[in-house]
Amino acid sequence: MSTLLRTSRHAFAWLPQPSLPALILGTLFFMASLTPSLVPRETWVQALLSGVSLAAGHAIGLMLSALWQRLEFPRLPHRALARIRAAVALLCLMATAVALWQASEWQNGLRSLMEMPPVESVRPFTIAGGAAVVFLMLVWFARLSWLVVRKLSDALSRVLPGPQAFLAAITLTALLFWNIGNGVLVREVLTAFDRLYAGLDGVFEETSPRPDDPRKTGAPESLIGWDELGRTGRAMIAAGPDRAQIEAATGAPAQEPLRVYVGLNAAPDPEARAALALDELKRIDAFSRGTLVIATPTGTGTVNSRGQQALEYVLQGDVATVSVQYSYVASWLALLSDPEYGVETARAVFSEVYGHWRTLPPDTRPALYLNGLSLGALNSELSHDLHQVVGDPFNGALWVGPPFNSPTWSEVTRNRNPGTPAWLPSYRDGSAVRFMNQTGLTSNATAPWSSFRILYLQHASDAVTFFDPQAAWRRPNWMISPRGPDVSPDFRWLPVVSFLQLVVDIMTAIKPPQGYGHRYSFDSYARAWAMLFDHADWADDRLDALVNSVAPPG
Description:
Helix content: 40-55%
Number of strands: 7
Number of helices: 19
Distance between the termini: 64 Å
């Protein structure tokens, strides 16, 4: 029996023993993690977030307790402290139960705002259990790390003074776990993802048949083989609309839209792929069209189908689009594995196309625009330098869901006109830069478009755009009232926890339906292209009719 009791005490010794501050802060952080943020959270995502938040509050509380002891402030007697801790623990348990019950209402409020069905009724119990598992795993990992530090410190203290041995032990432990995590785990995960996405990139979809039209990339007459486009490239080329569909939807004469796509395997390096793209544009006489668009794809090589279709409907098919793949993995993986590769490709493509475009007579060459979604928007923005274009600028750009670290977007938003919201700012007189959201609302403009123009299409609920690393210690500007129409009024800023919520939001930004988060609809794209081109014949009623008559796939 005594052996069993000793074994039980030894097992329970691995359970966390929170100090009073750790108990209070851990509970507060857990409760705060249940409140809504930008994107509705699935149950397992909420459990993970709540477990991490609980661990963060617990760790901060332990550090505060250690600091209190180190400064030798007075301490309560052990018996009184135990009674207070028990009372506080009971209050924390009751508050946690209330927050778990309220969590479903918070999530349902946000889901209703985004036209999503309510969550399941058993969610609070699943969250509590999952969060507890995550919390214990993090606590045990922290204790394992501390055990390694102590063992190394004891060994090093034989040759170094105590403080130096302790500092060296912390450094070595950090390096050990960093190398294990970054050098082994991350490498294997990235390799696995690379194989997965490479396999997907090579898939031939039945919905993307090889074209017979000689003006299509991948056709027998094309400079680029159908197998060299990759899955996303083949999908772009094979997708509609064609001339007949445009005429049927708009009731006006149209042309067959032109699309050029160069896959990652079509040439050995970005410069060669860019040169191949230009040759293909020349082959199909793309520079005779009224508009030419350089569309920088996302990390997977995708050019948003809704945006591409909206562009071609609005311009009645009188447009050519060129896109060059730089990766086949998801955008966040491309950023982690090789963040400069997409920029390198975007610069090579812009240099080739723009270099040829500016040699053409200004009165006969097409209007030149840039376009990109998400990582594509960032790489499109970085595709050129001011000195390249200042003498003969291209016409403008539509950048959709720009990442929060996009330089131009960040500067314009930071220097917006006073009194305008960060989620839909006005910049100067609006002649050069404007913003639009999914409702069609645009930032105030007191002057007409200039010859060079940039339009940002963004959702206030898009964490890719509105993620703020400083949210750990200060409230983001976009949370100041009035808020965007798709942001929950129950979203409250809280130190550390709000940052963790936004980290989760940026990873799940594509989960909401079209028109929310990081998912942009055909409707929004159509209104954005019409606004950018300043086509008077595309009034709201005609755009409404177009949207009602067109049903883009997916």
